[in-house]
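Cross-check.
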Amino acid sequence: MKRVLTAIVLIACVVALIFRGQPWMLSAATCLVAELAAYEFLALTRPSGARVPLWWMLSGTAAVFLFTLPEYHYQEAELPVIGLLMIVLMAWTAFRNNVERVLPDTALGVFGLVYVAYPLSLLPLIWMREDGKPLLLFLMVCVWAGDIVALYTGRMFGRHRLSALSPKKTWEGSIGSLAGSVLAGLAIVYGGEYLLRRGDTLLHIVEPVWQSVLLAVVINLAAQLGDLLESAIKRGAGVKDSGAMLPGHGGILDRIDALLLAAPVLWCVLLLKDAVGPGRF
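Predicted model, tokenized:
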């Protein structure tokens, strides 16, 4: 019951932010999620002997999100900012007489920003596109549906293990996840067409259905890989969950692991689409 209630509250909050929130609200909310996930990430690095400063990780995460605000919408600055933060962390580690930790701690810290902060910082940028609201909902629904269908399909029909990284995941669950994402994506597309016939463009996606199906497939495959990669991080740290912030769900990272790879993949698809020709997705 805790798992269901937590999921309902989270989904309601996300949908409300997408369709009722302001740009700064979405940036603030995703930044908060990233800060909490970054805190969990640091906890996962402790068994390896890492000592990345919490102040650096939290301030670095906030700095990445600064450039997603409407008045500072200059996303090209994110990479130089991450580079500057890397130098700061490297110097901090070196001058604290931890020369042997300079390379591993700097690498882990920068990886944390690229793995957690940067992908989530793309969500406000997607939202601010002309077709951003239905596109962001499409992304979320594909990730959610794939996760839910994989869970129950795997429980009912799972026989063949998918990967040693996560023993409970099966090929049957993976196939079910893919089908769930495609069906959920099509529900958004046809829901948008239904509303359009009544004069409401809220969910309208102008691209052909086959492109939406292909996008749902790409998002799902990225999401499944993101889930497996987070499992690898947790296994390396010797823990089952990244934390316990969400009742019935574990930690923040456990809930956004799929999104951390799906969002950058979607952003790359959008950039490629913008580069090769006009049109919206």
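The chain has two domains: 1-128, 130-281. Residues 1-128 form one domain. Passed to J.P. for a second look.
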